[in-house]
């Protein structure tokens, strides 16, 4: 399908020329700082008190193995990522299907639906922490007016997690909807007509025809979201600060605290290196297995 | 049949709006509610006050917003350029290690800023670029490259290979193929990638905070400092901040929604 | 169809070309010939805005101007730190908070004021003996003063005098608790009063039915620094250490005193406003300003910047400030000190000019000018507090600081420990878990103690 390396011939030079700037840029501005971080993970470096990083071999990694708080954070992040992604896929799929039925003002509707996604994450966190705020927020007020239970929304572990999940779904379901809508749009219409002529309806149409063809895109969207939700920081930071206790201290909050509050860059780098290595591995396997799904369903 | 459809559409539209709009509308309401009755939730009707917005404007946001505009636009242009070239490679070329290369591009983005902040700041200082817009442009170019590659690659994959292959057989050089065949067909994709990376650059806070001080300060940083830290954290001014930060982006997306959607759906090339 | 993209691309390229020169060319700050511009890095607080304004007024005839860069509070520390580590020389002045002193001093980001007091003239300009040591000790480290003291933020108790002097309430209180309703002198009394005044909507308060719930005490308990910042006063009042014993370097998170303080706080928590766990200082004061609380425990300037301001508050004139209550007899009115100051950036290119100018602006006269701009300023100079004009025009501030000077409350300071933020975070996490009922106070504190010991061992303080 594509030109192979062998058939390029003279054009090989052009390809190098074209990609060289990008590669150079990435090596200097993206890779080098990242490698610096990996190097830092082998040092003891408190940026406030240590003048220079001090080589301490694998001490940081040993500490990671013993760190119960870290394990807790990882498990919280995994739970959050999985549940949030599931919710976003469901909501996004529902909206995408709806938009595919071509309602009036569809483009405008999609545009509006996309708004949470393009708001600055800090603003999203602010919005939702205000909504749940027990002094100014409408949600507790609603509960109060309807004589519901007096819940400490952001100060109880279970409801704090719920609030974060809701905010995340609100913010990112639009992305999933956009991707799935794109996938739906390229499905050939004829097959639906043919199926309808054969007597199939509604649910069967969806399950037998639509779903298999957009499965690839669903997996792509889910993959994107799981990774980002796993590293979620802004909303947690603003809404709960990791609390109550450590019940919403996701891995990114953990690293943030180590780096920005304790200023232990060495340990923070070690943690992030380990986490990202694991993530990279998972993502590599996912890409390998579903490499073809990176392209939308096509008729090649 | 059509009546039921119309009803269905109406319900659907209502649900979507009810899900998306209320949080934002509440923010707007808070931003114009007078300070004294701010915590009286039962008071839904009141005479609005715009003094918070006045204060905002008075706090001199002209230069920062201009900085944001310039750096976001040029940064996104850079992203398009580098990402586009990379996307070409991914889309048209078969070689081993594609996955690895994509990961190498993707992973650095996930490193939290604090650790990469210092080497980057050092590099910028050596180049004498502290507190310049150029520094931000250089940084912004790289942030959304993975996103750009992904969007553009999807788009480029849609270009029928017969066109490029026949042109190659006819002896056209690579730059010619790119300029004459690929570029004109990838307009919507490029626009979509541009818009998305523009938005993320516009909202970027941490790097501009550290790298700039007076001259190249961006809108996001200027607006965040308006809430003045922990002491004066008031819902009213926070709400105003949220609204002001979001309005430009909202208008932008709504204005370009058609192109954005087209860029994603690649519908222009099919059917 | 193929026509439009080409137009768009062309239009796009033209726009880009136009922006290019704007991008590369940087705007150089317009400085009139002969003006010295001093840069200031700090938070966008009213007192610093006032400072910059007054400084520019004073500086105009001298040809000195201050150019401020306002950032969110936490980011000021980070920026000062990273800029100094990477050799950026932009700044002259840096705002400093007392808990930042050990860090920025160790990182050599700021220069101690003592380094400039090399001549009698310079020392006289600073007037070091004029500072109220109760408030300034937090800005000192290793015998040196690291910043020019500007604003003190002592923690005090704000209370509704109208409620405390209401006849019906006094009668009811006497009947219920057996002693007269007055400003609480002990924490037991504080608890009683908080309990007494916590009422639901519809109940009576001072002879009138309430339109909303009313709370005994209003506080800001958001996890992430606020919670501990409020609790630490009670911790100290109960005779406990601030997390560890500085003489033995042994953590004492689960000492009996610490446990007692936590239990007390859990009980007091019932009488606080519902949003207390997610609200910061400003938010809590808004609730008090709306007339929903009988008492508030907060930094004095926090309260002063909201409660007496008619635009923001419905209780103007009804609030008075008292020292925090006592618990343990040898720590009367115990509190933990808070200080804000102006430090000189170590890499500044105009250090001497900056120092001279700072002594001028933060002198007695200068401070009075700043107070005119920002009446909630709690000055750290005795001469300012005693000044007749100040006594007359800023009665709240005068009364409060005068109380502090006369009664000499027991004032502790956050120890200059390298790992303080981590140690504090461990404790605060346990406190938060105990407050929300996730863990019993004993379990929470025992768990915290274990983590503290691990931290201190790792840091090399314990074997």
Automatic annotation (TrEMBL), chain A:
* GO CC field: plasma membrane
**Where would you find the membrane-spanning parts of this chain?**
12-32, 76-99, 108-131, 151-184, 205-227, 265-286
Q: Which keywords label this protein?
A: Cell membrane, Membrane, Transmembrane, Transmembrane helix, Transport
Q: Where is the ABC transmembrane type-1 domain?
A: 74-284
Carries keyword Cell membrane? yes
* Source species, domain of life: Bacteria
Give a yes or no for keyword Nucleotide-binding in this entry: no
Family matches, as CDD domains? TM_PBP2
Subcellular compartments: Cell membrane
- UniProt-listed GO biological process terms: transmembrane transport
What is its membrane topology? Multi-pass membrane protein
InterPro entries xref list: MetI-like, MetI-like_sf
Pfam families hit by this protein = BPD_transp_1
Family of the protein in this entry: Belongs to the binding-protein-dependent transport system permease family.
Q: What is this protein called?
A: Sugar ABC transporter permease
TrEMBL record, chain C:
Keywords from the UniProt entry:
Signal, Transport
Keyword Transport present in the record's keywords: the answer is yes
Asked if Transport is a keyword of the record, the answer is yes
Signal peptide stretch: 1-32
Q: Which family does it belong to?
A: Belongs to the bacterial solute-binding protein 1 family.
Q: What is this protein called?
A: Extracellular solute-binding protein
